[in-house]
From TrEMBL:
<keyword id="KW-0240">DNA-directed RNA polymerase</keyword>
<dbReference type="InterPro" id="IPR002755">
    <property type="entry name" value="DNA_primase_S"/>
</dbReference>
<keyword id="KW-0479">Metal-binding</keyword>
<feature type="compositionally biased region" description="Low complexity">
    <location>
        <begin position="452"/>
        <end position="462"/>
    </location>
</feature>
<keyword id="KW-0808">Transferase</keyword>
<feature type="compositionally biased region" description="Low complexity">
    <location>
        <begin position="498"/>
        <end position="510"/>
    </location>
</feature>
<feature type="region of interest" description="Disordered">
    <location>
        <begin position="452"/>
        <end position="533"/>
    </location>
</feature>
<dbReference type="Pfam" id="PF01896">
    <property type="entry name" value="DNA_primase_S"/>
</dbReference>
<feature type="compositionally biased region" description="Pro residues">
    <location>
        <begin position="518"/>
        <end position="533"/>
    </location>
</feature>
<keyword id="KW-0548">Nucleotidyltransferase</keyword>
<feature type="region of interest" description="Disordered">
    <location>
        <begin position="409"/>
        <end position="433"/>
    </location>
</feature>
<dbReference type="GO" id="GO:0006269">
    <property type="term" value="P:DNA replication, synthesis of primer"/>
</dbReference>
<keyword id="KW-0235">DNA replication</keyword>
<keyword id="KW-0804">Transcription</keyword>
<feature type="compositionally biased region" description="Pro residues">
    <location>
        <begin position="463"/>
        <end position="497"/>
    </location>
</feature>
<dbReference type="InterPro" id="IPR014052">
    <property type="entry name" value="DNA_primase_ssu_euk/arc"/>
</dbReference>
<protein>
    <recommendedName>
        <fullName>DNA primase</fullName>
        <ecNumber>2.7.7.-</ecNumber>
    </recommendedName>
</protein>
């Protein structure tokens, strides 16, 4: 799993060797993550450091979290990134034969950056953000997280504020970490609607039938669209702005709306006019008259739908900024997001390295009295609980606890299966995590050829052996990723039904003298099923 660490920033903090690192490096939590995987897992994980003057050091690996902490105190990096788990220790990659050093697995990550919305936001640009445009990040998290859980069957997601102008998502499901670049790219493609560069005017194009994922995304955007786009950004507030919006409307509706917009008072009224016209076309189309127009949906999605960087997600060897590290430009801590309180999250209120120093100094007198006879782990817990970082650490702890409960449940379920060993194996001696249920369909081998005993018994004589379903990567992500143990639900991918093998029906005894029935299709030749005696 991941090892999260925090580092001090030389730009913002006086030289205090090891002080902030000793206080805020979550060693115990790192150990909890590492304790649920193979004992050499941490040693195969790549870390990278960005040092003074943008010196970038890759392929760092460490024998233990304690060794990583000592190296952080020694090098004092401005930025820490986490990469993949490799076949060999990354620090020894130059000693491995060419082609043998390969990334084995990594969390599926998503990076959403506010600069990708510069063509549709009017309040800020480039690296600047404000409370108005931060709503775009809230919408992005709501849409992507719902799709990851309900459409793709993923469970363990950690959303993290980057510390400046975006958010990151780490999907830590065991089987997902083993996905190939093709599967990762397919997931990002499924979650992508806004396509085209700066020269493309209309970047979202919808047609019937509208995919259920798009409909659910529109429902999310609608909850925020008026407050964000119509009031906050005022996208229809002037002729220059509404001309940009009307360029996304079909020509047969554009001229009428251009004449009616000046008669309305504000962006809200103009939007209601446009939306009502589009809804009338859809009602007429459902009655068999005319063609449905989804221009209002296309506008909402182009202005508010998440914009993902496919290269960050599909590359197994790609590195991403570590949670709980300090952003070198802002000094803000990269903190986990509480999805239950996502709408209340304020990026300007997160702890900074300077504010944490002040909070510790304010509590220093009481701490000196309590330090006597106190162990190091207890002191660390007490220190961070006195700061504004405490609620964010609690979010991280809850994420770890949920993963630990899921892992224990899976181990118990496997141990209870017939033929499985029931002996408890220490966590540090286990093999790498086994595929979870939602992606077991992708990794299950095909059934082996039947042996002599299986050939002699007809299919109808007893229960047929389990036959795993087949799956191949389609253009859009497949529904078989949903756990087979979950309640039946309508397939959200009507154009790509899951392909499942069916056991053949029981065959009547074959006879050399008996002719084939005239009204039945040809069957498999007798040698395939065993000759009769």
């Amino acid at each position: 799993m991941l090892c999260f660490a925090s580092a001090e920033s030389r730009m913002l903090v006086p030289k205090q060797p090891g002080s902030m690192m000793d206080t805020f490096t979550p060693k115990s939590r790192s150990s909890r993550l590492e304790g649920s995987t193979a004992k050499n897992y941490f040693q195969l994980r790549e870390f990278s450091f960005t040092l003074r003057d943008d010196v970038y050091v890759r392929f760092q690996s460490f024998g233990s979290p304690q060794e990583l902490e000592r190296e952080l105190q020694k090098m004092n990096p401005y930025k820490i990134d986490i990469g993949a788990v490799y076949s060999h220790r990354p620090s020894q990659h130059n000693t491995v034969h060419l082609g043998a050093f390969q990334p084995v697995e990594k969390e599926l990550v998503f990076d959403i950056d506010m600069t990708d919305y510069d063509d549709v936001r009017t309040c800020c640009s480039s690296a600047e953000i404000c409370s108005k445009c931060w709503t775009l990040m809230t919408i992005a998290v709501r849409i992507i997280d719902r799709a990851l859980v309900e459409d793709l069957g993923m469970k363990h997601r950690l959303w993290v504020y980057s510390g400046r102008r975006g958010v990151h998502c780490w999907v830590c499901d065991d089987a997902v970490r083993k996905w190939s670049p093709a599967l990762r790219a397919a997931a990002v493609e499924y979650l992508t609607l806004v396509k085209g560069g700066a020269e493309t005017v209309k970047k979202v194009n919808l047609s019937e039938p509208v995919h259920p994922f798009i409909r659910r995304s529109v429902n999310v955007v609608e909850k925020y669209f008026e407050e964000y786009a119509l009031v906050g950004q005022d996208i229809l507030g002037s002729p220059e702005r509404w001309d940009k919006v009307l360029a996304l409307v079909p020509e047969e509706h554009r001229e009428q709306l251009q004449g009616d917009f000046p008669k309305k008072r504000d962006s809200v009224q103009r939007w209601e006019l446009l939306k009502g016209r589009m809804e009338r076309t859809r009602r007429a189309a459902s009655a068999g008259k005319g063609t449905a127009c989804y221009a209002d949906w296309e506008i909402m999605l182009q202005y508010c739908f998440p914009r993902l960087d496919i290269n960050v997600s599909k590359g197994v060897g790609h590195l991403l900024k570590s949670p709980f590290s300090v952003h070198p430009k802002t000094g803000r801590i990269s903190v986990p997001l509480d999805l239950q309180r996502l709408d209340q999250f304020d990026p300007f209120a997160v702890p900074t390295i300077s504010s944490l120093c002040r909070e510790l100094d304010a509590a220093g007198d009481d701490g000196e009295q309590e330090d006597r006879g106190e162990t190091e782990p207890k002191r660390r817990v007490r220190d961070y609980k006195r700061t504004s970082l405490a609620p964010y650490v609690r979010v991280f702890e809850q994420f770890l606890e949920e993963m630990e409960r899921a892992r224990r449940g899976e181990r118990l379920q496997r141990s209870a299966m017939p033929g499985e060993a029931t002996e408890t194996v220490p966590a540090t001696e286990q093999e790498l995590p086994q595929p979870q249920a939602e992606t077991a369909l992708l990794l299950a081998p095909l059934p082996a050829a039947p042996g002599p005993a299986a050939q002699a018994a007809p299919w109808g004589a007893g229960p047929a052996p389990p036959v795993p379903p087949l799956w191949s990567p389609p253009r859009r992500f497949p529904s078989p990723l949903c756990p087979p143990s979950s309640p039946p639900q309508p397939c959200p991918f009507p154009l790509i039904p899951p392909l499942r093998l069916q056991a053949p029906q029981a065959l009547p005894p074959l006879s050399r003298s008996a002719p084939w029935p005239q009204d039945s299709p040809p069957r498999c030749p007798p040698p395939l099923w065993g000759r009769p005696h």
